[in-house]
Amino acid sequence: MTPEIEAQIAASPFAALGLAAPLLRGVLDEGYPQPTPVQSEVVPHALAGRDVLACAQTGTGKTAAFVLPILQHLAKAPPTGKIQALILTPTRELAAQIGERISVYGRYVGLGHVVVYGGVSQHRQERELRNRPAILVATPGRLLDLMQQGFVRLSDITHFVLDEADRMLDMGFVHDVRRVCATLPAERQTMLFSATIPSSIESLARSLLRDPVRVAIQPAVTTAEHVEQSVVFVERANKRALLEKVLAGEDVSRAIVFTRTKHGANRLCEQLDRAGIGSAAIHGNKSQGARERALEDFKRGTTRVLVATDVAARGIDVDGISHVINYDLPNVAESYVHRIGRTGRAGAVGRAISFCGLEERGLLSDIERFIKKRLPATESDGTTTRTPEPLAFEVRAARPLLPGEGRGPRGRRRRF
Hints:
The chain has 416 residues and is α/β, with parallel strands linked by helices. The protein has helices spanning 3-11, 21-30, 37-47, 62-76, 92-105, 123-129, 140-148, 165-170, 174-181, 199-208, 239-247, 262-274, 288-300, 333-340, 361-371; strands at residues 52-55, 85-88, 113-116, 135-138, 159-162, 189-194, 213-216, 227-233, 255-258, 279-282, 305-308, 323-326, 350-356, 377-379, 384-386. It has 15 helices and 15 strands.
């Protein structure tokens, strides 16, 4: 670790939470400027070993709030070769997202993890379980199947997370959850996260948690009033061609294009340059000098297009940005609000266009729940597919079914 990185880690606002240097470095790589409220509230208590009952919606940064303390606890404990942490989620989409965050935050820790869910062949999951992961992320149905077949034992669990508990109950998984919990050791740390805390969740929490710390976080941001928002459904392979078409529009005077990864930003910037569209990339791997030069060129108008990761979403304060284009939808819904807030400033009208591939429909649903409205949408050929409308809370059930997913009795989704 270079002295420069050590200094950045020491100065990180996340250091005040009590996180170890390897985890702070992982967070630093992602370019997060400061902890979200749920992270500030939950992480210190979780590091102290307390049970937690948190009321927090998707998009508040709750995944890091439980993943970071688990990684720190397990990194300090002697390896056992057994599953020590279980994170139970209602859907395969969420399970995959949590798995990806574990990889990102724990890249300098070296703990193995496996994600298991239904709707796909379990053979690969069986092979990965044989590698003796320390952390298991799972949906209830597939977990119970693997337990019954002898591929998973939960007798050594020290950390248990139940994520989106209200959604778990809405989908009819309460009995599966209780069956899983009945096999867990009594001596463990448990964290329960839910967007709402109705009486059914209170009852479940009383049966699972011991003297929990209670945390309630409400989203503090709303979407910009002067930003025209829309989404375009487009296959991933066609995103670049669509982007070039949008950027060729005469109304695009200055645009920020957001990608999910640093590598993706670099690659897209190179492709735009080859297409004759001058651009610059700005992300966490760029030196401070390179970032400042790119931003200065963008402000002066020398560079018309800035390709950025979320490290830039809160840090760019430039007037006259006509367009924000979400080439990749963000994993955290709150990031969407910060991204599009770069346009429509000082009373001007801006446009925010989001490209949504089939595999990103779940992320779109998270964003729309967070901002409490549907985005007007078209297909990439310009065909209107829906018009904006108020978003009811039942939008969770309105997302497209995933491959292999169906509906069971009374319209409920079949078990994952």
